[in-house]
Amino acid sequence: MKLNFDHLQRCSLTLERSLQSLAKAELASVDYEVFRNAVIKSFELTLETAGKLLRKVLKSYVASPQEIDALVFKDILRHAARHGLLSAVELERWLAYRDSRNETAHNYGEQFAENTLRQITDFQRDALALYETLRKKHG
Questions:
Q1: 3-state secondary structure 5-65
Q2: pTM for this structure?
C-alpha cells in the first residue's frame, strides 16, 4: 500500500515557521506566549502524526497488523528502529520527545513549555528526516 506522508512534512514545516516567529518575538510579550503556544501545539501534532504514520508503515513488516495496533507509542518507536526507520540515536531522541510531549500535555506551566522548547529545533530536523526516510522507503 502506498502511503502519503505529506501531512508529516506539512506539520514539520508549520513547526519551523512557528519557531521562526517565536525567535522574532520579544521575550515576556504576549506575542512570545502566542508563538510559544503555537510551537508547542505544532510539536504535539507533528509527534502524533509521526506516530500514526509509523504505525501504518509498521503493519507492512508484520504478519498480524493487530500486533501493531496493540503497541503503545514508545513501542511503535522501538519497532521503527528495529526495522531501520530510525537509528538507535534517533530512537533515543524520539523517546525523549515523547516524554517531553507527555510533560507539556499533563503538567501545565511556563517551565514545562520552556523545557520542551529546548528540544524543538532538533525535533523539527528529526521529523523532516523521518519524513524523508518514510517517503523513500514507503512513498
A1: CHHHHHHHHHHHHHHHHHHHCCCCCHHHHHHHHHHHHHHHHHHHHHHHHHHHHHHHHCCCH
A2: 0.90
- 84: helix, coil or strand? coil
The contacts of residue 62 (CB under 8 Å, 6+ apart) are 68
Which helix (H) or strand (E) element contains residue 95? helix 88-106
Q: What topology does CATH give the domain 6-132? A: Four Helix Bundle (Hemerythrin (Met), subunit A) (1.20.120)
Please answer whether residues 15 and 46 qualify as being in contact, where contact means their C-beta atoms are separated by less than 8 angstroms. yes
Rounded distance between C-alpha atoms, residue 97 and residue 31, angstroms: 25
Q: pLDDT digit string (tens) for 1-44?
A: 578 899 999 999 999 999 999 999 999 999 999 998 899 999 99
In the chain, what are the domain boundaries? 6-132
Q: What backbone phi and psi angles, to 5 degrees, belong to 44?
A: -60, -45
